[in-house]
Amino acid sequence: MRFFTLLAILIVFFADGLMAERRVIRQAQTQIANERYIQAIETLQPLLRRTPVADEVYLLLGTSYLSVPGGSESALMYLEKAVELYPIERRPSQSALEARFYLGQALHLNYRFEDAIKLFDELKPLIPSSRRQLIAAIERERLYSVNAIELIKHPVNYEIQTLGQGINSLYDEHSPVVSLDESSIFFTSNRPIAGMSNDANRYFENIYVSYWREGAWTAAQLLELPGGYLGNRATVSVSSDGQTLLFYQSDGAVGNLYMTRLRFGVWTEPEILPPPITSPFNETHASFSIDGNSIWFTSDRPGGYGGKDIYVSHLLPDGNWGEPINAGPAINTSLDEESPFLHPNGTTLYFSSEGHNSMGGYDIFRSEMSDDGVWSTAQNIGYPINTPDDDLFYMPTPDGQRVYYASSRPGGMGFTDLYLISFPVEDERSLAVMASHIYGIDEKPLADAVVRVYNVENNESMGVFRPNPLNGKVVAVLPSARNYRIEVEAEGYRSYEYEFTIPLRDVYGTRQRAFYLPTIVLVKE
Fold this sequence. Notes:
- This protein has helices at about 1-35, 35-45, 55-65, 70-85, 95-110, 115-125, 130-150, 200; strands at about 160, 175-180, 185-190, 205-215, 215, 220, 235-240, 245-250, 255-265, 265, 270, 285-290, 295-300, 310-315, 325, 335-340, 350-355, 365-370, 380, 395, 400-405, 415-420, 430-440, 450-455, 460-465, 475-480, 480-490, 495-500, 515, 520.
- The chain is of the alpha+beta class and about 525 residues long.
- The protein folds into 3 domains: about 10-150, Alpha Horseshoe (Serine Threonine Protein Phosphatase 5, Tetratricopeptide repeat), CATH 1.25.40.10; about 160-420, 6 Propeller (Neuraminidase), CATH 2.120.10; about 430-520, Immunoglobulins (Immunoglobulin-like, Sandwich), CATH 2.60.40.10.
- Strands 2, 3, 4, 5 and 6 form a 5-stranded antiparallel β-sheet that branches.
- The longest helix has about 30 residues, at about 1-35.
- The protein is elongated and about 90 Å long.
- The termini are far apart.
- Residues about 1-15 and about 505-510 have low confidence and may be disordered.
């Protein structure tokens, strides 16, 4: 009798244990479905201490680590174990197919491209012809590995340096946007916010800002915006003077683009971008032209080529935005496009795409607009700037000499850090940033001043500019190796003229960034 009593207790004990294990696995599955991969990993880790470990735990851990920056090695380890536990039979189970598909992705992320190709070639014949989406996904992943092998044969020559501890942390930093003179940088990080409970902010992304002072970046500070929003916000774009910021905000089921302005040292209440830019669908990234008269943005609204596409909208004479125009098949594909950045030259578009000849996930591409307004075929900017993982948010300086960039690299502080790419000295670039400040005799910014810049050689107008009303700063992007004349006019003041030269290799002040003119102080008439 005692034996049967003990057996009954053990049966109940193990049954309770199995039920608890299934609850944990279901919880992790829900977290993965909601893209809470770090939470899923934390949920599943205790199950590794059980004996035996459920086969599903290895598969779920592997797929979760695939979606975490820097998690590819762990993903490979768990997925190799999952493949052992889910053998290929006459009619393979869904788990067996998934384990091999995700293992192929993990092999690719670990630069084992030949092994990934071999695995995808073995997997494809096992898929029923009716499962067209899965077959297409296998073919796409295989092509990524083929593209990677080819791109790695022709690496890009560049130097890279970290932006340092003032900006990077043990957490993720990404999406850097920089004012034209590189005096301020805004970026996104999921680091904890001081003063908030860990549960309230541990998974949210927020916007941070740092300033270039005395030869270094200041310690990054949380960008304080009015309101009590608690959710994900991410940097998108910044105006040339660093006083207007575009950012992405998660608003429940969709994401929208918002704008805030710096007024007397305080950021204004965020305003959602107006229709037709904002729609009932997701708008995730945007970039203004340097004159502010056009905006390039991504949206998954219907009518595109597939997934998220890049659109452009132009400012109308009445101050409203015109109907968005799809950027076309030279740029958009049946897969997702993201993070458009229109170079200050107005004719070069940088963007990220999962299509074209990407070497894995999102790669960064560039396209040039011809004189008749046609975009050239997108060109991959090359390895090792592009990697087998997702590469987004590529923001070159106007002269093209440097690029602010987020990447997961060996030796970094966290999963993803911010870096500065510099190209070789012999790689000449053509544009430079001119900056100055304009004041009246009372040392207050002249908000109504009109600034005109001319090419001295042919008197060609290079543009009309206005200073920022709060700090008097004026910024212009000009071709280098030219002589210029700047003319400044303001009602009630004497006009001002000054000639200057921007050499081919700009001596951009002490930091080799912007070409600063002396402060301009106008005199009363």
